Each structure stands twice: as structure tokens, then as C-alpha cells.
């Protein structure tokens, strides 16, 4: 491409060093929002309205009178890059839920910050904010940045558009395309993403990953005459074109295995609503890496397991049986991560009724395999199987179905006898997802003493089960957790799930927030996660006080964005869910955990 920057070393993308990709807790970190459904529960409990509302509810009046102006004022005053980044994303979330409003907008701020090369981190956040805002008017700008055009280079005042900025622009296009139902708009975005991916097979990993993930968020219409293999007529663009491009990418052995692996999930996402012919072709293609004698790289195998979990179901159709058989083989004989991913994918397949004969036929077979892992498996295998039972239950409930009635029994026994905190934590979460009422008493005991990580998981499980008898022991546990932030957050969240609104008063209490900047920042984050409209005033005060510690102001900005956001799930979940979390890039999750990765901006 004209003016293209030299590519940095391709690198060895993985999760940040402290994360073990083979541990169920890493999977949970990227998927917990989908299963806790905290935002959906709290939005239902504290409605967001357009007009006058009770003091606990967020209304347009409250947003426009207090929250939005505070973010706008803060953006116009001096602050460090991390603070401005938090303010930009918060304002974008506000505009996405409540409209642009008067005064400074995200697009205004982005236009300014993109021209400030000395504060690159803010320019990157400004581009992400345009995606979070779902601002279709910014597509032309984002296209120019992704494609590194003369216009894009002029905007940033450089001879090249930095690969990181191009990556963030790609993610932003994906978020806009996902939210925009206009077919012409989606085609415009998909064309840019495909063209950028086609232009340079040696582009940096971050950029190619961003473009692949974004393409998977922008489904086009199906065309009956466009199969997912072979070349397509130039200029023609439909779902089949996208599938063909991604399938070629996955099967191109000249490309880096990690990128081939990362193309699998976008391929599977787009195949979910494809024509039956195309769906079957993609499933057959994803079965190939798992076939006996396959020499596919381990990364591609792992992603194929994830992808098949998105595409299989429980009926007796031949391909669905083959999908289940392949996943069952991986559960029994795969490497550690492959077995864990297979357990979760099997749960998803079992929870999806097919359209063919005996639509739930595969559920019993899969439950038996997972039950065997619970009974005879060791270490992480048992932990993954426990989580899988919880995932399965959550998939079945909307259909009026449930997992086998005896599934919770070994989990309860393991809760009391398990030695590893990793294993016991998985059991806690599984029992919570199963909403097992018989687990309340032992979970209360686990939440009250012992390992802090296990106590936190036990508390969240109690919140998920929703039994009011857990309120008193959790309230007592909260009082003893003030010196352990993660544990305190989990217990407070559980109490909020149980309908204990007074926990918000405890979080914002003077003794707690006056104990130091770190405690106040933690309080701000919690108020954003589980607060209501009453939380806006203290957060606005903390953000507006230029003498306040930077970490407090950053936390307050994030919290205000969280409170303003009417979505039932975080904006980043469409990117993080089902992603191969073992092959991340620094633009998704920064190695230094400095907040510069897209998933850290949420």
C-alpha cells in the first residue's frame, strides 16, 4: 500500500503473562458478562426512562443535566492520557444510548485528538470511541485510516497511519457494521475489511486480527448462487463472498497458523445464519482439522473446536452427529486446552435444538460424557466439565429444558472435598449457573472463610442462584472483605443481584472512600458496575475535582459511562466472546495491563 509503514516483528501473540490460556478462569474472564447478565438484571430492576423517573432510575433528564455535561467538561480540561481515554469511551457509551445531545460530541473530540501525534494513546481511544458510539457518519474516516490512504495519513499528520491506529479503526468499523442494519453500509464496511486483508499478507498480527474479527461482526445477505468456496465475481459482495474469503484464509497454509486460527470464529459466526448449503460446507471444513491424521496446527485445531461449538446442534442429522463425535474425541483424547474447549463447545451443541429428526437427541450423550469427566477426570478436566454443565443449563433454560437432574450432586460433593482453589472455584460458578438451591448452604460456608478467590466465586454463585437466605451471611462476609478488593467486589455484586440496594450506601460510605485513593477508585468502579442513578452525584463530584487522584477520576469516568449505557451487555462482548483468548494481540489486551488494549477500555 502507498506509504505503508514497515511491519514490526510479527511477534508471538498470546494472553498476558499472568493468564494461563488453559485455565478455565481465563475463559471465564472473557465470557462472564454473558452468563452473569448483571447489566440486564440491573437495567430491569432500575429502569432507564426518557422522562421523569424515580430517584433510583436513570432518565434522559438526569443524563443530560448531570452525567453528560460532567464528561464534556472533563474532556475539555487537562488530564493524563488514561483519563482522557476513559472519558472518551464513557461519552461514546452515553451517546450510543441517549443520542448526541448538546455540546462537545465524540466526533468533535475524535477530530481533535487524531491530530495530536504526541498523545497516540488518546488518538487510539478516540477511534475506538467512534465504534462504541456506532457512528455511521465516521465510516469514511475509519475506512481511510484502515486503508492507510492519503486522506488518512493527512488526518493523522504522518507519512503513514500507524498499524495500531489502523487496527483500532478496523474494530470500530466492525462495531458500527454490527449495529447498523443498512445493507449498503454493511457492504461498504465489509469491502474495506476484505480489501485491507487482501492487500498485505505480511501486515502486523494486530492489524490482520482486527480486520478478521471485524469482518465476523458484519453479516451480509445470503445469495443462493454464491458458495463458500472458489472465486467470486469481482465487485459482488454477499454472505457467500465473506464465507469464501474467510474459508480461503483459514485453509491458506502460507499464512501464519495463529492468524488462520483467528479467522475460524469469524467464519463460524457468519455461517450461523448462512444458507444450509453454505453452513454444511463450513462445518465440513472445520471438521477437517480434527480428523484422524490431520496435520493442522494446534491453534487451528483449537479454533475449530470453538467454531464447531457455534455451528453444531443436537438432532440426528449426519453432519451434526459428526460434529458431536469430533468434539467428544477431543474431550477424551485432546491436549489440555483442547479438552477444555471441547467441553464448553459440547455444552453449546447440546443446548441447541436442531431442525432435524429428534431435535434434542445429542443432549443425553453429551451429558453422559461431561458427567464422566466430573466423576473420573482430574484437575482442570473436572473444572472445565463443571463449567460446561453450567453453560449447558443456561442454553437450555430459555427452551424450558434443564440438564440431567443428578448433575449437581457430584458438584456439591466436590465443593466440600475439593483441594484445588481452581477446581472448587469452577464448581462454585457451575452451581451458580445451574441455580442449584441445595447448594446455598455449602456456598455460604465457602463465601465466609478460606481462600479469597474461592470465596469470591462462591459469592457470585449465590447471587446467581438468587436465594434470599444468602443475604445475611454475604452481608457479614462483605464487612470482613474491605481489605481485599476482588473479594469485596464479588460479594457486593452478589448482594446487588440479591436485591440488596443498601450495599451501594456501604460502598460510597465516608470511612471507605476516605481511606485512600485506591479504595475510592475501587468504590467508583463498583458504583459503575452495580449502582443506580443515586451513584451519579458522587461520581460526577470525583471526576470534576481536578485535585482528585488520577486513578479516582479515571474510575469515575468509566463508572459514569457504565451507568449511562443502556445495553444489556458490555459493548466489547461482541469482540471478546468466543475469541481464541490464547492468541490475543496487544491492541486487544496490553501486555503491560496499562489500559491501552481495546478489551481493557470497556
Give a description of the structure.
Helix 11 runs parallel beside helix 13, helix 14 (276-287) packs antiparallel against helix 15 and helix 17 (336-350) runs parallel beside helix 19 (380-396). Helices cover 62% and strands 1% of the residues. It has a two-stranded parallel ribbon with strand order 1-2. It has helices spanning 24-36, 38-45, 60-75, 81-98, 106-113, 120-132, 139-146, 150-156, 163-179, 183-199, 205-215, 239-251, 257-271, 276-287, 298-311, 318-333, 336-350, 361-376, 380-396, 408-417, 421-434, 440-448, 452-465, 471-479, 485-497, 503-507, 510-513, 517-530, 536-544, 550-564, 573-576; strands at residues 48-49, 58-59. By secondary structure, the protein is an all-alpha fold.
Amino acid at each position: 500500500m502507498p506509504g505503508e509503514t514497515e511491519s514490526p516483528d510479527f511477534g508471538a501473540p498470546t494472553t498476558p503473562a499472568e493468564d494461563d490460556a488453559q485455565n478455565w478462569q481465563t475463559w471465564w474472564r472473557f465470557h462472564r458478562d454473558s452468563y452473569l447478565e448483571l447489566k440486564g438484571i440491573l437495567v430491569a430492576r432500575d429502569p432507564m426512562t426518557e422522562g421523569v423517573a424515580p430517584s433510583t432510575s436513570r432518565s434522559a433528564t438526569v443524563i443530560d443535566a448531570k452525567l453528560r455535561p460532567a464528561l464534556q467538561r472533563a474532556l475539555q480540561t487537562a488530564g493524563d492520557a488514561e483519563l482522557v481515554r476513559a472519558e472518551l469511551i464513557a461519552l461514546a457509551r452515553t451517546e450510543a444510548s441517549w443520542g448526541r445531545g448538546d455540546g462537545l460530541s465524540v466526533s468533535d473530540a475524535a477530530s481533535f485528538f487524531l491530530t495530536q501525534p504526541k498523545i497516540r494513546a488518546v488518538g487510539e481511544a478516540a477511534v475506538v470511541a467512534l465504534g462504541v458510539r456506532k457512528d455511521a457518519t465516521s465510516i469514511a474516516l475509519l475506512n481511510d485510516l484502515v486503508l492507510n490512504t492519503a486522506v488518512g495519513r493527512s488526518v493523522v499528520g504522518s507519512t503513514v497511519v500507524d498499524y495500531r491506529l489502523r487496527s483500532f479503526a478496523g474494530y470500530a468499523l466492525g462495531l458500527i457494521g454490527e449495529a447498523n442494519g443498512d445493507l449498503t453500509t454493511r457492504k461498504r464496511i465489509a469491502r474495506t475489511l476484505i480489501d485491507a486483508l487482501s492487500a498485505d499478507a505480511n501486515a502486523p498480527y494486530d492489524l490482520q486480527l482486527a480486520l478478521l474479527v471485524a469482518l465476523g461482526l458484519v453479516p451480509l445477505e445470503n445469495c443462493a448462487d454464491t458458495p463458500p468456496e472458489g472465486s467470486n465475481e469481482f465487485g459482488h459482495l454477499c454472505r457467500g463472498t465473506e464465507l469464501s474469503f474467510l474459508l480461503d484464509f483459514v485453509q491458506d497454509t502460507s499464512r501464519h497458523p495463529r492468524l488462520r486460527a483467528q479467522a475460524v470464529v469469524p467464519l463460524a459466526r457468519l455461517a450461523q445464519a448462512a444458507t444450509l448449503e453454505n453452513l454444511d460446507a463450513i462445518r465440513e471444513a472445520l471438521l477437517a482439522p480434527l480428523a484422524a491424521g490431520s496435520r493442522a496446527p494446534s491453534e487451528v485445531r483449537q479454533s475449530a473446536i470453538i467454531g464447531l461449538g457455534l455451528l453444531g446442534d443436537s438432532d440426528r442429522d449426519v453432519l451434526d452427529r459428526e460434529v458431536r463425535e469430533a468434539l467428544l474425541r477431543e474431550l477424551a483424547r485432546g491436549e489440555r486446552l483442547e479438552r477444555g474447549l471441547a467441553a464448553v463447545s459440547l455444552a453449546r451443541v447440546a443446548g441447541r435444538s436442531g431442525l432435524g429428526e429428534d431435535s434434542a437427541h445429542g443432549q443425553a450423550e453429551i451429558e453422559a460424557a461431561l458427567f464422566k469427566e466430573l466423576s473420573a477426570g482430574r484437575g482442570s478436566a473436572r473444572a472445565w466439565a463443571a463449567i460446561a454443565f453450567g453453560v449447558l443449563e443456561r442454553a437450555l433454560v430459555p427452551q424450558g429444558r434443564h440438564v440431567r437432574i443428578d448433575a449437581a450432586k457430584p458438584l456439591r460433593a466436590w465443593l466440600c472435598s475439593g483441594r484445588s482453589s481452581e477446581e472448587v472455584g469452577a464448581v462454585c460458578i457451575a452451581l451458580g449457573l445451574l441455580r442449584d438451591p441445595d447448594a446455598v448452604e455449602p456456598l455460604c460456608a465457602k463465601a465466609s472463610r478460606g481462600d479469597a478467590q474461592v470465596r469470591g466465586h462462591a459469592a457470585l454463585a449465590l447471587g446467581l442462584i438468587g436465594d434470599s437466605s444468602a443475604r445475611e451471611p454475604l452481608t457479614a462476609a462483605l464487612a470482613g472483605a474491605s481489605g481485599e478488593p476482588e473479594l469485596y467486589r464479588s460479594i457486593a455484586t452478589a448482594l446487588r443481584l440479591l436485591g440488596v440496594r443498601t450495599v451501594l450506601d456501604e460502598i460510597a460510605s465516608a470511612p471507605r472512600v476516605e481511606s485512600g485513593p485506591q479504595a475510592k477508585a475501587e468504590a467508583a468502579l463498583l458504583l459503575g458496575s452495580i449502582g443506580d442513578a443515586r451513584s451519579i452525584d458522587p461520581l460526577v463530584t470525583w471526576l470534576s475535582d481536578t485535585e482528585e487522584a488520577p486513578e479516582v477520576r479515571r474510575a469515575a469516568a468509566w463508572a459514569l459511562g457504565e451507568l449511562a449505557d443502556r445495553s444489556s451487555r458490555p459493548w466489547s462482548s461482541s469482540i471478546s466472546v468466543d475469541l481464541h483468548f490464547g492468541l490475543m494481540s496487544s491492541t486487544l489486551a496490553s501486555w503491560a495491563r496499562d489500559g491501552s488494549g481495546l478489551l481493557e477500555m470497556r
